[in-house]
Each structure stands twice: as structure tokens, then as C-alpha cells.
Design the sequence.
């Protein structure tokens, strides 16, 4: 059985049919062609599928697609509508990532943090990305990049 839902994806309204047991991750990747959320653990542990749902970061593998009816979903593609996001730019400059598999989920988590706290402490950043596993970097370059991006967004640099 399929349900028809209407939701906003990256600023554009969509109406689609979804299965009752279909995850938001599968909807985004398989039906909507959105590839930034990655299927990692498929149980909410790794954060590679992180997207924003109504402005809050969530693990899209844990959200059922019918639950997003009437909601707004933002992915990395949505953050890049007007070009590369400042967080992405700083991460690129700082070589914050190696393989990049975790990057979209971490960027979404960081943007949510900076939207609600434009002057985060190192501890705030650590907490914000705690649910995003990165097996390559050791996190220091990511945390440093977030703090620099926050400064730039506040106009400090």
C-alpha cells in the first residue's frame, strides 16, 4: 500500500507516493535522486544519512517517509542552491576530510548548530557532531574548520 505525501525538499514542493515502511533515506536516494545522504549503518549510528527536517538535523534512515508529509527537508544539495556553503568552503581549505563519505552528514549537523548558535565553543561543536562518525580524520580538522566557518559567518575575518 502506498501513501501520497507532499513535502518541501530543498525549497521545492513535491508530491510523491511512498510505502508505509519506506525510510526518508530511501525516498531521497531512490525516488528523488538526492545522493548526499549516504546509507552507512542503516540504524542511526553513523550519521552519514543526516538531513535537516524542519530545520533540525535527523538521521534519515530512522524517519519513515510518510512522517515527512507537510514537512521541509533540506539536504546538502539544498544548502548549495546558491553555490558552495561557507562551511564547505572552509572544510575544503582546511582539508577537513579525507574520503568524504561522512562530509554531507557532518556539514548538515554543523549548519544546524551554526543556525542556532553562531558563536559555538569547541565543546558545542563536539556535541553537535558527536552523532557523525568519521573514520579518517580524528575530528580535529573538522572542529577547527567549524570554528573558523563560524567566525567567517559572523564577519570576524
Sequence:
Amino acid at each position: 500500500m502506498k501513501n501520497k505525501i507532499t513535502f518541501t525538499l530543498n525549497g521545492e514542493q513535491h508530491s510523491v507516493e511512498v510505502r508505509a515502511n519506506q525510510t526518508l533515506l530511501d525516498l531521497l536516494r531512490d525516488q528523488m535522486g538526492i545522493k548526499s545522504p549516504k546509507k552507512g549503518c542503516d540504524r542511526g549510528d553513523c550519521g552519514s544519512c543526516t538531513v535537516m527536517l524542519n530545520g533540525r538535523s535527523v538521521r534519515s534512515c530512522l524517519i519513515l517517509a510518510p512522517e515527512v508529509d507537510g514537512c521541509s527537508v533540506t539536504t546538502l544539495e539544498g544548502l548549495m542552491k546558491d553555490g558552495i556553503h561557507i562551511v564547505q568552503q572552509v572544510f575544503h581549505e582546511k582539508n577537513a576530510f579525507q574520503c568524504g563519505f561522512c562530509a554531507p552528514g557532518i556539514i548538515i549537523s554543523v549548519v544546524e548548530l551554526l543556525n542556532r548558535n553562531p558563536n559555538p565553543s569547541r565543546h558545542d561543536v563536539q556535541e553537535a557532531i558527536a552523532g557523525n562518525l568519521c573514520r579518517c580524520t580524528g575530528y580535529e580538522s573538522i572542529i577547527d574548520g567549524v570554528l573558523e566557518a563560524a567566525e567567517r559567518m559572523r564577519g570576524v575575518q
